[in-house]
Amino acid sequence: MSSKICVIGSSNIDQIAYTQNIPADGETLFGDSFQMGFGGKGANQAVMAGLLGADVYMITCLGDDVYKEMTVTNYEANNVNTDHIQMVKGASGVAPIWVDSTGQNRIIVIPGANNEIDAQKAISSMEEIGNISVLVGQCEIPMEVNHEVFKFAKNNSVTTIFNPAPARKLETEFLEHISWLIPNENEFELISGMEPSDENFLKFNKEVPCNLIVTLGEKGAVLVHENKTHYFDAPTVEAIDTTGAGDSFIGTFAYELSESNSPEACIKKAVEKASDSVTKKGTQSSYN
Ligand code: RIB
To answer: Catalytic site residues?
Structure first.
């Protein structure tokens, strides 16, 4: 029987506009194409793990709008358990996204129901699921909820992965509940107050009570461990759309970790999956 992964976090509907150039202030431009699909950092990470064959449970909160049913159906289609999805009145999360000709994106998240997720219900869900081996979270739901849920997980010997995205400062007490902290370079800069560099990765790792991996985009990722950095190069690919690549890394890393693979093997596989995802359009649609 495979180990259980629980993801707590956001579900969004991604509304992606592909354009050669990003408009300047006050400018109107014609874009190339538009795609609507399923997103949200939490959802993407759960779906990636589900596609790899994980036994994955999603704790998220949806509104009572047209997106509710289709989001649940999408989770089911991607092998993600939906028994613990919370529902509230109002709008579900949405994310208007611009992707330019280099594949780079700019994202605005309107959290909607993601902000209404209830910590006590989430903890009850985790008790009901039982025997969770890995918990995954991000910053697209209120941090108070993350605090309570990750504290519960740590007290129950669950391995925890936290992806501090979108970036925000993390309290030391919260970091004590984290086994693996995985920011990208921009997030590293904001949470550590230092520029991303080999020296600063090592310095920050000494300041935090958890393991550290920094994802480096097209350069791969770095594992910071026992006062050493270990770099994992990414294959050279043509980037069409980088949206959700970081989430693909996290979902793959969580799955590989739940299968008791070494951190090095988990990162290698996660870099491969994230690199592959940037060669295709869309968020979750680039994971297949
Ligand atoms: O990381 C990509 C994700 O960020 C998108 O799916 C969007 O919904 C935002 O959450």
So the answer is: 247
- Residue 9 near residue 40, CB atoms below 8 Å: yes
Alpha-carbon distances of 161 from 48, 213, 247, 282, rounded to whole Å: 15, 10, 12, 24
How many domains does one find in the chain?
1
Give φ, ψ of 146 to 5 degrees. -55, -45
- The residue whose CB lies within 8 Å of the most ligand 1 atoms, and thus the one to mutate among 44, 61, 78, 98, is 44
In a domain, 65, yes or no: yes
Cβ-contact 45, 38 below 8 angstroms: no
Locus of tokens 């990765």: 201
Tell me: the pLDDT tens digits for 255-283? 999 999 999 999 999 999 999 999 999 99
Site of tokens 């295709």: 280
**Residue 174 belongs to domain with CATH number:** 3.40.1190.20
Which residues form the domain of 132? 4-23+32-281
Q: Which of 98, 99, 107 most suits a substitution to test ligand 1, by most atoms within 8 Å of the C-beta? A: 107
Is 286 within a domain? no
Predicted model pTM: 0.97
Residues with CB under 6 A from ligand 1: 10, 12, 14, 39-41, 44, 95, 107, 109, 140, 243-244, 246-247, 283
Ligand 1 atom nearest 97 alpha carbon: 7
pLDDT in tens, 174-217: 999 999 999 999 999 999 999 999 999 999 999 999 999 999 99
Rounded to an integer, what distance in angstroms lies between the CA atom of residue 137 and that of residue 9?
6
Is 288 inside a domain boundary?
no
